[in-house]
Amino acid sequence: MKLLYIAALPIDFENLDGVPKKVISQCKALGSNFAVDLIFYHNGQVRLRDLPLGTERQLGQARNKLDVLRAAAKLVTEGDYGCMYVRYPRSDALFLALLKKAKTRGMRIAMEIPTYPYDLEGHETFKGRIINGMDRFFRKYLHRYVDRIVTYSDDREIFGVPTLNTINGVDFDTVTPDETPVEPEKQLQLVAVSAMFRVHGYDRLIRGMHEYYKNGGSRNLLLKLVGKGDAYDQYRGLVEEFGLQEHVEFCGARFGKDLEEAYRGSALGVNSLAIHRQGLVKESTLKTKEYAAKGLPVLSSSYVDAFSEAGNARFALRISPDETPVDVAQLIAFLDGLYAHGDTPALRRAIREDGRKTCDVHSTMKCVADYLLNPEI
Asked: What is the phi-psi region of residue 279: left when phi exceeds 0, alpha when psi lies from -120 to 50, beta otherwise?
């Protein structure tokens, strides 16, 4: 059966990271059961990639996601796809028209909502409020066309559509752990890889480091902030205000070998520390799955679904979901305990083994493939 994966976002196959990398891994997992075509845009062009063959062709010009949706509607009308997987682009009239065409053609439709609830996303800007308002109006009609919503929440139904509950996943086979020995007494390197939005809450860690050194702390910490987004200037301002330039490195956006270098020697990966700012109590972030695949323990303000219950007890330090600074002394004690035996490769293997069972993409996408193949189950 042929499956059309619609990702109305830019994807550069030469510099895959973050969400684009996740999309490709999902396509690979779905490719075990389907012949997958991926529609996306890159360099001002709508592109269609045949995943089994690895070939690609241009479908038209692309100014934004709307051009991808228009091209997808044409594909649905002219192609022989049996089902569709959509990364939710928010609802509007054009998106509903696409779904209606697919449903008329008898296609089964699974739609992923990466974050739910999401109504507070983008509300800080006028444009964001317009998009949210339009979405709230049109999403009321999704139940007419969408068969299942794929969610990382515990909701059994969203917008009147039954859900498939799973978590974010990564392809462990494509991730190589860094086995550079960690020597806690010399340096503890922390890495935070994200788009750097307010919800990530790295200001809590920066303030915690300030409190630690102000109160006489002497251990050598280095926080690497990888990425650049809306909160970047705030973080840089705090680092300068507190005089932490020797302990915080702003790496900017990194891909490929440059990203691997940023990870090198890290003792811990930093997850979101302020999802409460978005009204969330649970999340399924991509970065925690990448940390797990890298063999890194995690600092988080929410349960880390990349790990099992046992893994959370051993490899995740969970802090309170509020505005208090991170207790850096507690963080250091946590890492000292993990690295006490001096066998970094063994720790990396233990973390990867626990994470692979939980969040390898072939496992996390199984419920989607099973449904699309056998919707009556």
From this structure: left
User: Going by C-beta distance under 8 Å and a sequence separation of 6 or more, which residues neighbour residue 126?
Assistant: none
* Residue entry with tokens 């241009």: 58
CB atoms within 10 A of CB 257: 8
Residues comprising the chain, all counted: 377
Rounded to whole angstroms, the maximal C-alpha distance in the chain is 69
Q: CA distances (Å), 95 to each of 9, 28, 101, 108, in order?
A: 14, 25, 10, 16
Nearest-angstrom CA–CA distance, 300 and 311: 13
Rounded to 5°, the CA angle 334-280-141 comes to 150
56 vs 44: CA distance, rounded Å: 15
Give the pair of three-digit tokens for residue 157: 């139904």
Burial class of residue 191, CB neighbours in 10 A (0-12, 13-18, 19+): buried
For the chain, how big is the Rg over CA atoms in Å?
21
Q: Is the pLDDT of residue 123 over 80?
A: no
Nearest to 271 by CA among 250, 286, 253, 281: 286
Distances from the Cα of 43 to the Cαs of 57, 60, 267, in angstroms?
13, 11, 37
Digit-coded pLDDT (tens) for 317-335: 999 999 999 999 999 999 9
Q: In this structure, are residues 135 and 95 in contact, taking their beta carbons and an 8 Å threshold?
A: no
The token pair at 21 is 């990398």
**In the predicted structure, residue 377 carries a pLDDT above the cut 70:** no
Q: Are 283 and 275 in contact (CB under 8 A)?
A: yes
What does the pLDDT look like over 75-95, one tens digit per residue? 999 989 999 999 999 999 999
Asked if residue 149 lies in contact with residue 164, where contact means CB atoms within 8 angstroms, the answer is: yes
Q: By three-state DSSP, how is residue 146 classified?
A: coil
The angle subtended at Cα 144 by Cα 74 and Cα 363, nearest 5°, is 80
Q: How far is CA 212 from the centre of its chain?
A: 30
Structure pTM? 0.84
C-alpha 296/C-alpha 355 separation (Å) is 10
Q: At 299, which helix (H) or strand (E)?
A: strand 298-300
For the ranges 101-115, 221-235, 363-377, which has the lowest average pLDDT? 363-377
Identify which has the larger pLDDT, 376 or 254. Answer: 254
Rounded-to-integer distance, Cα 23 and Cα 66, Å: 19
